[in-house]
Amino acid sequence: MKVKTRIVGNSKTVTIPKAFNVAKDTEFTVKQLKNGSIIYTPVHIHRNPFEGDWFNEDLRQIDVTDGEEILDSEWS
């Protein structure tokens, strides 16, 4: 896939294709490598653990010694 820069005001912009499913207002850190590559990395925002619907999601505990599931979410 190719994208092309365009001028918006006094800046050059590169659009992110819809297929990448990047949420609106996502913030990125950006750096340019010596070879000219530009890398955009999403900034991870720390979420409040008391907000949202986390308790309804699939919560599994895995025994890291042998990789077998020790508590299935269907157990409850």
From TrEMBL:
It comes from the Bacteria. NCBIfam families: MazE_PemI_antitoxin (NF047400). This is AbrB family transcriptional regulator. It comes from Xylocopilactobacillus apicola.
